[in-house]
Amino acid sequence: MNAETVDILYRLAECNESRDRDINLLIEDMKQKAVEYESDGLFLKEFFMEDLNLSLSSLSKESMSYLNNLVDVALVLETKDTSLASFIPAINGLTSDLSKAQSKNKELELELSTLQRKLTSALVLEKRLQDDVVKTEKFLIEERKTADRRIQTMEFLMKKSEDIKGEIKSAKDQLSASGLDASLTHQSLVTLSEKLADVKNQSVPLQKKIESYLDLTPNPSLARVKIEEAKRELEALEAEFSTKLDMTALSVTLPTKRPFV
């Protein structure tokens, strides 16, 4: 029940109360007129019987019928007497009142029909809104369940993240306790590999130089010395890189990963 429905019902109640008041006023007016007509009838009766020296017993049955009809018409038309001059304006006035009453009745019927249509539309809208509210409540319940599941998943992932961080810290502590050189980390090894490649590139001219020494004949002792120095320099670079790789393979012992639940 919304505000529009209440307003329509209130207007219907006002129309009914207004019509009831009009009917009650009409009834009271008719009662008052009946008393007045009864008084006028008694007056006419006395007039006919005393002034005209007529009595009901002296009239024929047909005359009595006419007289009664005339009196009834005068009562209905609310005239002061039974003359034609009184009947014609009364009939015209009654016709006008009847036309106004019919017009007013049509207006009330039209207004009532309009209010009924509005009431029907309001009730249909209210039912639709109630259905929408039910659907929205169901949707919100499902969305709340989905949100709860996502929150639980997020909390679980955050907990696993903290666990993994702890495992990483523990692994770092174990590596540090095992005496692993910081230079043996992955990034350091990559850098060292790049340096080795650069050394190899730099050794190419040296190898060519050695080869040129091999072709020398005047002083073989000096050439052999130069060749041996170059070989030792190259072997030292390769040995340094190999040693660090071997140390990494022998020293690094990562903790066993726990399965992700």
Automatic annotation (TrEMBL):
InterPro entries (alphabetical): HAUS1 (IPR026243)
Which is an annotated Pfam family here? HAUS1
Q: Iron-sulfur among the record's keywords?
A: no
Q: Which GO terms describe its biological process?
A: cell division; centrosome cycle; spindle assembly
Coiled-coil parts of chain: 91-125
Please verify whether the record's keywords include Lipoprotein.
no
Q: Which compartments does it reside in?
A: Cytoplasm, Cytoskeleton, Spindle
Which keywords are on file for this protein? Cell cycle, Cell division, Coiled coil, Cytoplasm, Cytoskeleton, Microtubule, Mitosis
Question: Gene Ontology cellular component?
Answer: centrosome; cytosol; HAUS complex; mitotic spindle microtubule
Source domain of life:
Eukaryota
Residues of the signal sequence? none
Principal location class: cytoplasm
| Similarity comment text for this entry | Belongs to the HAUS1 family.
The protein, known as? HAUS augmin like complex subunit 1
Gene source species: Laticauda laticaudata
> Top-down, what is the taxonomic lineage of the species of origin?
Eukaryota, Metazoa, Chordata, Craniata, Vertebrata
